Amino acid sequence: MRDGFDCQALDWKSQYIEGIRTLKHLKNGTAFQHRNFAPKCFHCSDVRDVAFCNGYVLAGIHKCIRAWRVDDLKPVMMVDVPYEVFRLSVSRDGCVLGVGHYGGVVTSWLLDDINMNLLQEYIGHTDNVTCLNIATEIDLMCSGSRDRTAKLWCLSSGQLLTTLPASGWVAQVVVTPASPDSVYTHRHALLIADQTSVRLCSWPTQQGSTYGDIISMHTSDLDIPVDKKISMRKFLVQGRSILFVRDGAVIVQDLWTLTEIAHLNVDCRDLVLLASGTRFVLLTLWESCQKNSKLAVINASNGQLIGTYPMPFCREYVVTGNTEWLNDVLQHKPLQLVAAGWMMGVLHMNELTDVLFLVTWRHEQK
Fold this sequence. Notes:
The chain is about 5% helix and about 50% strand. The protein is mainly beta.
């Protein structure tokens, strides 16, 4: 029981009680709170994508990146970029921002607190860049585009390492470096989702090469068809498993054996995965007919619904904040960001406007 919340504290009893109290708040819908924020300097309809990094929300607006501090929503940064923004992606360590642009150019930027400095440009795509994923630990970035290709780049030099054709425009790419806790121990891996299926590619690590022997890339027999009725939705990688949505359920599949290891039934046909941890999964439940939506937390092992929180119907540009609590509920902090999204046509301060909707942990939970 002491290990139930991954806590090494000496006073494990008080930690256990606090964990139970937090789970109760999640169940009752009182763990989170939300705020609406309407920037005055631009229309939210101009926003092309949002990202979260180190306590800041970033937004791509035309040829500009803006950032606000989550704690007080004060603007802290505005940086001009050379091309129209289409997609934003922050590396897992929070050190690099990748920007996909209209027309196919990709740029990367070093993040230093609230400063951005251009790292590199990557030229090769012939259409809008739809997704990015950055693995700084192996100096690698992957980009996907409407030109039906995914490309692997050397992050620091901008060198194009390989181009992988897809069956349609690429919706999501995820790079997983080799490690004992990853998909493979001695092989780097790349998952690519297009309009048809999700594919798994891998290549061996190589002494003297940070990103490995990409020439020896192998494509596995993984074949996850995409449900076109609800369009391609986000998949998640947790350790050596992949989580994806099929027929209103969250499917967990082992990427080594390619076998299904869990079928988590969720009482909603229209759902989107946001983030996962070892204990919980965060997702959104959409009620399209009623234009309602909810944030939901489910048990990662059996799919049991832990709790929900009402969220405006904002299908586009939903981003997650701190996710450590998905491994251990005691790892959350008051006012930490849970999720955020842009909404259009919302009544805010007696005016119909576009707003940024932020869900955070409550300041106090009694």
